[in-house]
Every structure is written in structure tokens, then in C-alpha cells.
Amino acid sequence: RLYQIPFEMPGCEGKSEPQTLHLIGDFSAPAEFFVTLGVFCFLYAMAALVLYLRFHSLYGENKKLPIADFCVTVCFTFFWLVAAAAWGKGLSDVKAATRPTSLIAAMAVCQDEGVACSAGTTPAMGLANISVVR
Fold it and tell me: How does the UniProt record describe the way this protein sits in the membrane (predicted)?
């Protein structure tokens, strides 16, 4: 939810007062989808574990139960792949929205003649990249 984060634009050598810029974008949906799917996978795994351990004879006698279990597992696997791709896309969108060159281009102060704006630091996205890869 980048739109909730204010970004202070500095004034130019005391000629103008600092202004507040709000970043654009809400990239929380892919992460929320991924986390929600993870919670549902965990709950299903716990229920399946109880079924396997406590009601093993029911699972062995009923031929439809293993097929239903397999179908649910395939569905969860597909949705997990979709959620991971969505999370990766959300991360790349956050990177694009917070790129220093994009922020500098959005500042009116930097558009004036003879003004040279540069980014102080580049955001560190290494841990975010690792979270998507893992």
C-alpha cells in the first residue's frame, strides 16, 4: 500500500518549502493471496494428517477419499504456483514504483532548469528477492 507512505520532497536551496509526495500503487493483493493460500494449505495439511493417522482404516477402505485428496493437493499446487508468480510480479511492481529515477522524475523541484537531482541511496531489495525465490 504505497499510497499510504508520504515522501518528503526537499525544497531547492530555501526557495520553496518542502512538499509531500505520495507514492502510487497498492501491491498488497498478491502478498495477501500468497499468505492466505499458505494458511489454507497449512490447515488442509493438518486435517489430512489427522485423517491419515487417526482414521487410517477409513482412508484405506474408501477408494474415493485418496482420489479426492489427490485432486485437492493438485489444486493447492496450482494455486501455489499462481500465488508465487503473483507475489513475484507484485515485488517487481514495488521495485518499479520505488526506483529512485522514478521518484526523481515525479518531483517538480527536479524539473527546473539548472537543477541536478540525484538519489542518495538505492533501496536494498536483496531480502525481498530471496523471499520470492524461496
Answer: Multi-pass membrane protein
Distance, in Å, from the CA atom of 118 to the CA atom of 133, rounded to the nearest integer, reads 31
> What's the pTM value of the predicted model, to 2 decimals?
0.65
Total domains in the fold of the chain: 1
Residue 113 in any domain: the answer is: no
**Cα–Cα distance between 133 and 82 in angstroms, integer?**
14
How many CA atoms within 13 Å lie on the side-chain side of 11?
A: 6
Residue-level pLDDT, tens digit, the chain, 134 residues: 666 777 776 666 656 677 677 777 778 888 888 889 999 999 999 998 998 888 888 877 888 888 998 999 999 999 999 988 888 888 887 777 777 777 777 676 676 677 677 666 677 777 777 776 76
